[in-house]
Design goal:
- The complex is a heterotrimer of chains A (335), B (252) and C (152).
- Chain A is α+β, with helices and mostly antiparallel strands.
- In chain A, strand 18 and strand 19 form a beta hairpin.
- The radius of gyration of chain A is 20 Å and the shape is globular.
- Chain A contains four helices and 22 strands.
- In chain A, the strands form four sheets. A seven-stranded antiparallel β-sheet of chain A has the order 7-6-9-4-1-12-11, with no helix packed on it. In chain A, strands 14-21-18-19-16-15-22 form a seven-stranded mixed beta barrel.
- Chain C has a domain of 106 residues: OB fold (Dihydrolipoamide Acetyltransferase, E2P).
- Classes of the chains: A alpha+beta (335), B alpha+beta (252), C mainly beta (152).
- Chains A and C meet through strand 13 and helix 4 of A and strand 6 and strand 7 of C.
Chain lengths: 335, 252, 152
């Protein structure tokens, strides 16, 4: 059980998303950085569909109202449990009364707090993700507020506590050090996030100079960027003729270009359908990188192929399998 | 192997339909942008495939989309078949190994798809037009040159068909609005438009199902509940259902 | 397409004890995809600063020394095989450096075992005398990695 101590934190309960209800107008919602959420769950031995808390705004503080194992993954937020530092991508035991302080990240923009067994909120349409438009799912369909108390489902059968010598917990190497970069020669620019893109149906409607700009520009993430979508600033993208599409389904990662020629990457809370032309789609395997791109930094699009995009997803799955196996071996070898 | 975005031009199977003047009939051709769509299959990353049906934006095409959706939903590997307005999106849990042959299968299924005759329910929505609930009714009046009463009468006359759901939980894309009351979308969207807002955007009309932003012209309000997440089938309306707006009140 | 890379820590411990019995100090197993290196280090108890470790900034700027430093130094040993790290992969400043005061149970180093980071803990309160192993070096079970001067 935990109590939220921060107000106006924009934090929400999210699992990996609500699938199967697009035909009712219900988007998937779910964690922006599904990789960080997955690793947090693996560290705790949680079920894969366990929900955690996505924290996009800092500082963020909670109090543990019971002894509990938890994990912090995603952006390195200089977390502290009481006075003791908690390393990033780490799991550790908290004691009743402990206050967890999550500070301002030095890089990245979102971190995830996972609890033993997962956050206990009702399943709505098969998921614990928060659906903000329509106000259902997650914690009462809204962002967390000061005073909210959340239950954890609790560890299932396994020891919830970490005895010595692991009272200090353990963690994983952050994924960016374990997964190959999207580009063979990664950018030296720390303020740039490179993601791979597959062209979408309206790609060929754009003028050659606009396509050139699309692939070469460092698109700036404007302050109007959030879980709904990332609004980017850069050169105007011009189509050879006015394009208005009939309303059709879209998925997170789709890059739409509205009338002003400035691209928007639709993300987890986006409308699940729309009519703007689509120039490309950020591949699913790189959405976690996008999720950690801060406002004011730049996005660089790199063209990829379908087989490469599929291989990138398999790479992610392989990484998570290796982490899962290691954590299970590690836990079982302690006794 | 590289997947190239495919475009096929196809001889239109359907003749262009005349615009029916009798707006009481259900099969009203909804003239969207005066153009015919070309058959197209494209990928949305590795997560989804989009099928765009050829032809006009009308109910005959949409009925075939409903047939296609039913068939495709049962295909192995398809997570969800999501109808849009004369199109269909397929989502995947695992990316298809051979998208090209999946696209071919979609084309074949489309060619074989007949119009699905859904016995939809008819729902009547009482609407309070104008006043505090219709902040943009005067903008529609100004744009169309019609009076408030004429706009309301033309809005209430048709029996609208639900083509598909999308945009937000429970929201219905409706076909059948009279083009005489068409009004362009607003330059500046309104944030926090309440659920139940009845609006006109271009040649379409719709009712928002929950609070959110909208760039459409709001002309009235209705109290219907369009979505309940506690229900097994959470949306109140489904493709093939029909809506008729009824005047409850016209405020000045 | 992807092979499972499994690290069985129990097996590693067993192998280490066999090596010790046989008097073998080092073994390297090469496969096409990976190399496994196991090192048994039996270093004499070190007094003073026989080895200094590079790239350790005293980020704090001041050196804390416990007033009552015991004459006996305490070795902090790796409790399993892995790659010794002084700095977390996400960070640029080391966890501890020479002269730092640590409490019992503090994390003074990390062992990287494939994708896992396992903490090396100070067994007692004290002051770090020296880091004995270069960051990035492979260590075995029992390798002494840090030397502490315990507080009285």
């Amino acid at each position: 059980m935990i109590e939220i101590l921060s107000s106006s934190a924009l934090a929400t309960v999210q699992d990996h998303g609500r699938e199967g209800y697009l035909r009712y107008g219900v988007g998937t919602a779910g964690a922006m950085d599904r990789l960080a959420l997955a690793v947090g769950n693996l560290l705790l031995g949680n079920p894969d569909d366990a929900a955690g808390i996505e924290i996009p705004m800092f500082p963020f503080r909670i109090r543990f109202l019971a002894d509990m194992a938890f994990a912090i993954t995603g952006a390195d937020c200089a977390a502290r449990l009481g006075e003791r530092q908690v390393l990033p991508w780490w799991t550790i035991q908290a004691k009743q009364g402990d206050v967890l302080t999550i500070g301002v990240p030095t890089s990245g923009t979102r971190c995830y707090l996972t609890l033993a067994g997962g956050v206990e909120v009702p399943l709505v349409l098969g998921s614990r993700s928060t659906q903000l438009r329509g106000q259902f799912g997650g914690y009462n369909g809204r962002q967390l507020q000061k005073g909210d108390v959340l239950q954890a489902i609790g560890a299932s059968g396994r020891a919830a506590s970490y005895g010595a010598p692991y009272a200090a917990g353990f963690g994983t190497v952050p994924p960016e050090h374990s997964l190959p970069a999207p580009q063979a020669l990664p950018s030296a620019d720390a303020d740039q996030t490179t993601v791979r893109v597959l062209p979408a149906a309206e790609y060929e409607y754009y003028r050659p100079e606009s396509l050139e700009a699309f692939w070469s520009e460092g698109w700036k993430v404007t302050p109007q960027s959030d879980r709904y979508g990332y609004r980017l600033a850069g050169p105007t993208l011009n189509a050879t003729h006015a394009v208005e599409k009939r309303s059709h389904g879209i998925v997170p990662g789709v890059i739409q270009v509205p009338h002003n020629g400035q691209p928007i990457i639709q993300l987890r809370d986006a409308q699940p359908s729309g009519g703007y032309p689509k120039i490309g789609t950020v591949i699913e395997a790189d959405l976690w990188r996008l999720a950690q791109a801060r406002i004011g930094t730049k996005i660089r699009f790199v063209q990829t192929t379908y087989p490469e995009a599929v291989a990138a997803l398999e790479e992610l799955a392989g990484y998570l399998t290796r982490v899962r196996n290691l954590v299970e071996l590690f836990r079982s070898s302690r006794h | 192997m590289t997947l190239t975005v495919e475009q096929a031009s196809i001889a239109h199977a359907d003749a262009v339909r005349p615009l029916r003047q009798d707006s009481q009939r259900t099969a009203v051709a909804m003239k969207h942008d005066e153009s015919e769509q070309t058959l197209r299959v494209s990928m949305l990353g590795t997560t989804a495939m989009l099928f765009e049906a050829p032809g006009a934006l009308d109910l005959h095409v949409q009925r075939r989309i409903w047939t296609l959706a039913r068939e495709v939903q049962a295909w192995p590997g398809v997570r969800e078949a999501v109808p849009g307005v004369t199109n269909l999106m397929l989502t995947f849990a695992i990316p298809p190994a051979d998208p090209a042959s999946l696209g071919d299968a979609l084309r074949d299924a489309w060619a074989a798809a007949s119009e699905l005759q859904i016995e939809g329910k008819v729902v009547e929505l009482p609407v309070q037009y104008g006043g505090e609930f219709g902040p943009h009714l005067q903008d529609v009046v100004s744009h169309t040159g019609l009076s408030v009463d004429e706009v309301v009468q033309l809005h209430c006359a048709p029996l609208y068909t639900v083509y598909a759901l999308g945009s937000h939980p429970g929201y219905c894309y409706l076909g059948g609005m009279d083009p005489r009351i068409a009004t362009p979308r607003r330059k500046v969207p309104v944030l926090g438009l309440p659920g139940g807002a009845v609006s006109i955007g271009g040649v379409q009309t719709g009712v928002s199902a929950s609070t959110g932003p909208s760039g459409w012209n709001t002309i009235g309000h209705t109290s219907m509940s369009f979505f309940d997440p506690a229900r097994e089938n959470p949306a109140t309306l489904a493709p093939g259902d029909m809506i008729r707006f009824r005047v409850e009140r016209i405020a000045s | 397409m992807t092979e499972k890379d499994e690290v069985n820590i129990g097996e590693l411990r067993q192998i280490m004890s066999w090596l010790a019995t046989a008097g073998i100090e080092f073994i390297e197993i090469c496969r096409p995809a990976a190399t496994v290196r196991l090192t048994m280090e039996r270093e004499p108890r070190m007094k003073g600063r026989a080895r200094t470790v590079h790239a350790l900034d005293d980020a704090e700027g001041t050196r804390e020394r416990s007033a009552a430093v015991s004459e006996q130094s305490v070795g902090v040993a790796a409790h399993c095989a892995g790659i010794f790290l002084t700095t977390h992969p996400a960070r640029s400043t080391p966890l501890v450096s020479a002269g730092a005061h640590v409490n019992a149970g503090d994390i003074v180093g990390l062992l990287r075992i494939a994708q896992l980071c396992v903490p090396v803990l100070a067994p007692v309160e004290g002051v770090v005398i020296d880091v004995l192993v270069a960051p990035g070096a492979t260590v075995g079970y029992g390798t002494r990695v840090i030397e502490l001067a315990p507080s009285a």
